[in-house]
Amino acid sequence: MAKVWYLKVSFCCSVGSTSPDEAVAQTRADRPQPLMKLRHLEYFVAAAEELNFTHAADRLHVSQPPFSKQIQDLEGELGVNLFQRERKGVALTAAGKAFLIDAREILRACEQAVKKAQRINRGELGELTVGHMAALTHEFLGQVLERWQKVSPGIVIDCVEMDPETQERALLDGRIAVGILVLGDRPILELLRVQLLMEHPVTVALPKSHPQAALPEIRLPILKEQPFIGLNRMYPAYGDWLQTVCQQSGFSPRIVREADGAATALAFVAAGLGVALVSEPIKKFPTRHVVFKDLVAPQPVRIPLGAVWKKNGLYSGVVSKFVKTLSQVCALTA
Fold first, then answer.
1. Domain boundary residue among 68, 103, 119?
2. Digit-coded pLDDT (tens) for 82-100
3. Are residues 326 and 177 in the same domain?
4. d(CA 149, CA 109)
5. Which residues of 140-153 are buried (b: 16+ CB within 10 A; e: fewer)?
6. Of 119, 140, 172, at which residue does a domain stop?
7. Which end of the chain has the least Cβ crowding within 10 Å, N or C?
8. Max CA-CA distance within the chain?
9. Which of 295, 299, 184, 165 lies closest to 241, judged by CA?
10. Which residues have a Cβ under 8 Å from the Cβ of 191 and sit 6 or more positions away?
11. Per-residue DSSP letter, 137
């Protein structure tokens, strides 16, 4: 076999394009290389730190011959000598010293990756995206995040403003983990888990110039001839809800404009385009030309706000913990 090998090398040399050393190196490079395993790196680091294969093998609780074989395999795979063999042990070569730095870093990164995966599995680390409507959560969401930071500092909460319908779709698609929205009898909510957080009283938003603006409270029948501002995007099925509430007082509301959110609704009210029935947190919005009055109706009128999340979701343990924190804070602020 040796004759054949050298004949091949001689042939390559005779062409004048490759030296014998280059030909051998190229032949090695062309061979399929085995994949390096973490065990090789663990053995190498132990040997590099002990500078004695026997002591390193004892440290890893393995016998010395298989340990030495793993080191030889590693050197053969790399194509370099990592150790210089001496009478009383070994010493690192220049390549070995450089490889030790990277090997330690790789093992450290692997250890951190394992710990990170275990913490995520225990619900101690990760990220949770929460959909919400700022108009209805501005009173308590900051307190929720502050408390969450204390109990679960490893879980980052990302809050995204969304209207209720967008939240529901995002929950089913997995784009958010929790939604905070106005509840109702929408069929889609049957596919999700729901937790009531609080029920907001309803207040009447009137322009300052309105004839009833000076009254301490507004009885619903007084508004039977008034134009109303709709809020279907903010409160799902708002039109149906408003129709039911007003019919209890003997009239059907006339919705003249549809607003896409609280700020737009209040702008319409300030302009004198109509009145609006909104939940109590909207009273905190800075408005110069709008007044808010308590609503008096035949039956108490409240708007339920709740947390919604996907059944058997990916981070169900963390979600349940967050919803619990949410409920606790809301109970204190309700």
1. 119
2. 999 988 889 999 999 999 9
3. yes
4. 26
5. bbebbeeebeeebe
6. 119
7. N
8. 112
9. 184
10. 172, 311
11. H
Tokens of 322: 């967050």
Enclosing domain of residue 216? 198-302
Q: Are residues 180 and 231 in the same domain?
A: no
Look-up of token digits 């967008």: 166
State the residue for tokens 């903010």. Answer: 234
The amino acid that residue 55 corresponds to is H
Structure tokens at 67: 């340990």
In degrees and rounded to multiples of 5, residue 131 shows phi and psi of -90, 145
Q: What is the distance between the terminal CA atoms of the chain, rounded to a whole angstrom?
A: 89
Q: Binning pLDDT at 50, 70 and 90, where does residue 125 land?
A: low
Do 163 and 107 lie in one domain? The reply is: no
Q: Which one is predicted more confidently, 11 or 201?
A: 201
pTM over 0.85: no
The DSSP code for 191 is G
Helix, strand, coil abundance in the chain, percent, nearest 5: 50, 25, 30
Is residue 64 included in any domain, yes or no? Answer: yes
pLDDT computed for residue 8 by the predictor: 32
Whole-number Å distance between alpha carbons of 303 and 301:
7
Pairing of strands 290-296, 276-279: unpaired
Amino acid letter, residue 107: L
Tens digit of pLDDT for each residue in 11-37? 233 334 455 445 434 544 555 455 678
| 186 assigned to some structural domain | yes
Q: Kindly report the backbone phi and psi dihedral angles of residue 81, in degrees, each rounded to the nearest multiple of 5, phi listed first.
A: -90, 120
In a domain, 141, yes or no: yes
Residues 264, 200, 217, 291: is their CA dihedral positive or negative? negative
